[in-house]
Amino acid sequence: MPKGYWIGHVDVTNAENYPGYLKAARWAYEKYGAKFVIRGGKYEVMEGAARDRHVVIEFESYEKAFACYNSPEYAAARKIRQANSDGDMLIVEGAG
Questions:
Q1: Threshold 0.90, pTM exceeds
Q2: What CATH code is carried by the domain that includes residue 46?
Q3: pLDDT value, residue 96
């Protein structure tokens, strides 16, 4: 079964409150077995436009990635993230 990935591209608009999102999301990440592959870090834009922060989170399956995103544990965290950042979020099925 292919793995599932969250891919997020984020511009933090309120750096003071954004850490509340990370704290609130921790419970969902633990429950659904999230593994951070990329969490910020150095990057270079080679083509197109980019946001300030890039995150890739791996789950054991595409279904588990969806379940985490739609879980009650993540719902409160998502509201904090959306209130303190602008971004793009995708859930993608891995290759094989």
A1: yes
A2: 3.30.70.100
A3: 73
